[in-house]
Write a structure and sequence with these properties.
Largest sheet: none
Number of helices: 2
Distance between the termini: 27 Å
Structural class: mainly alpha
Order of helices and strands: HH
């Protein structure tokens, strides 16, 4: 389980999947296994947790 309160994620794809798994309940939607969907999810969810994850990834740092 990811600590969404602190946004404590490591630079690993499995951690991103863990985040997706936990956060999907916040937006009431399950993303598909595609980078575009993950990018969309992270972009929206960062407002839910009130914090932008500091990961070295274009997916995470994507801003809409």
């Amino acid at each position: 389980i990811c600590d969404l309160g602190r946004g404590a994620l490591h630079h690993k794809s499995e951690d991103i999947r863990c985040k997706i798994s936990d956060v999907r309940f916040m937006i009431g939607e399950v993303p598909n296994q595609k980078s575009d969907d993950i990018r969309y999810l992270i972009s929206d969810v960062r407002f839910e947790i009130g914090e932008v994850p500091n990961l070295k990834s274009k997916i995470i740092h994507h801003k809409s």
